[in-house]
Amino acid sequence: MKNRRKRGGLNGGDVVVSWRRFFQFVALFVFSFLIFSALFVFLGNQKINQKTVLRGSEPAAVKVATIHEAVVFPDQTLIFLNYPPSSRLLTKEDLFCVFSDVKDSSKSYKELPFAVEIDDNGRQIVRCSAVPRGSTVSLAVSRWSVGDNNLLVETTHRWDWLVYDAVIDDDNSTVVFVKGLNLRPGKVADVSRYECVYGWDLAKPKLLLRTQVISAAQEIVRCKTPLTVLEGPRTAQPVKVSVRIKGSGMLPSVAHPIKRPGRVKDSKPFETCVCTMTRNAANVLREWVMYHGGIGVQRWFIYDNNSDDDIVAEIKHLENRGYNVSRHFWPWIKTQEAGFANCAIRAKSDCDLVAFIDVDEFFYIPSGQTLTDVIRHHKTAGPLSSSGEIGEIRTPCHSFGPSGLRDPPRDGVTTAYTCRMSLPERHKSIIRPESLNATLINVVHHFHLREGFAFADVDKGTMVINHYKYQVWDVFKEKFKRRVATYVADWQNEENVGSKDRAPGLGTRPVEPSDWAERFCEVNDTGLRDWVLENYRERKTQRLVWEREGRRVEDEVIVQMGSWADKRIGRKRKKQLKAQ
């Protein structure tokens, strides 16, 4: 019995001790598990944060980007991206344009986009190459997983049948820009043939708002804007506008009418502004802006027609130097007249007067007056027409030739090209935006005016435009790629070969004539060159104010090397003389 009790006691004691140890073990295990879990979560978050920083975004937000629609041009494709609110935008470095065979999607290739742009509506637009025949286009996002990395195009539009832009004017009408109506240049069309259509989804006829057309001419239709559009709140999905041709149907549209901020009358901040449309003008823009800034221009609107040079950086440089220059992405090809009309509306609230010239055109005022002084004189003291007050001033143009040069000038065009044709060619205009006809008809060189306004011609002895039209061949041959005006045939086409818009005797092929450097030279004209050298050279360096720093450093090195060589030759010559 005692032994049994002892054993029992011993066994009972063992049971007590083992349970205690068991609970200690469990407690230790739970504590260790909690510590390990906390460390795991902490280290896991650190890795996720590092990946997020390295990728530079919130992957979930980026992943929901979609392609809303695309527009196919002969030489490129515009792809419109759609994002939910607060998403981070993709960059050019994130994207690839992917072209796939329609019959076999495994046959595909990818390339970097030309550019990624933002338009006036805040939409992000990716510029890809033209889609090859028998292929489709999509976008690949480089940092996504293989299974998810393609964005497919929902809707593709043809460029030659499209409503491509729209803006609400200060009278609350909507100015709609249309490709495909094929209206005659300079003529007003019958508005009863058309109808304006507004909607958040143009594919749902029952939800569309229809309004009357106020005017239609060239590529511009002016519509009455519904109150719902004018007074409604801005939403993530803005309203679209299109035009319906009665009996033919509605044109597809990528246009969202945008209301530009207005100003109180008589409080415009700029007296003289300039609008231009250009492509790849980065190397000439600095001279053009700085020169015209010196004669009184205060504001520049640059409509960029698909540049692939450093024009963005060049405009930023000019802004940093105090010039009020803005770039406006305008991808629509052969639409210069429409672009100028768009710019006239844009400039109306800011500018009293707007000049429409190209980046190879420079106002020259022999008297040394400012551009503003000349304009004021013609508005007040000039001969008034019986038609009314002056709303447009027309300036004659002199066309300059290569002037014996064979290489592009380093210091700019104004001091390099000095030989021109004897007779002026056409004119360019400076307008008061309020004086323009509601149709906004223009032929690039001038606009149609409202009733009660007239134009005045400037005498060429008072002011002229030096048009550096026929430059050295390497520059001039770029004109053969495509002309920007709607109703002007491209130079490689056989249409209107004898037109003033072409180079006399050149033909339709970009083949350099052997005597190109000596052509278009009838009058030696150094007036603007002399004025520029007198007024735009820095006193210390004697260099023109728009010369690039890189060129200055290069020239200084050449000068230093030249002076070192002169000294060396001089020392050698002294030794020879002593020896004699």
UniProtKB/TrEMBL annotation:
EC number: 2.4.1.-
One MF annotation (Gene Ontology) recorded for this entry: glycosyltransferase activity
Principal subcellular localization: membrane
UniProt entry keywords in alphabetical sequence: Glycosyltransferase, Membrane, Transferase, Transmembrane, Transmembrane helix
InterPro entries: Glyco_transf_92
Protein name: Glycosyltransferase family 92 protein
EC supergroup of this enzyme: transferase
Any Pfam family hit: Glyco_transf_92
Transmembrane regions listed in the UniProt entry: 21-43
GO cellular component: cytoplasm; membrane
Family that this chain belongs to: Belongs to the glycosyltransferase 92 family.
Topology of this chain in the membrane: Single-pass membrane protein
Cell compartment(s), UniProt: Membrane
Origin species: Capsella rubella
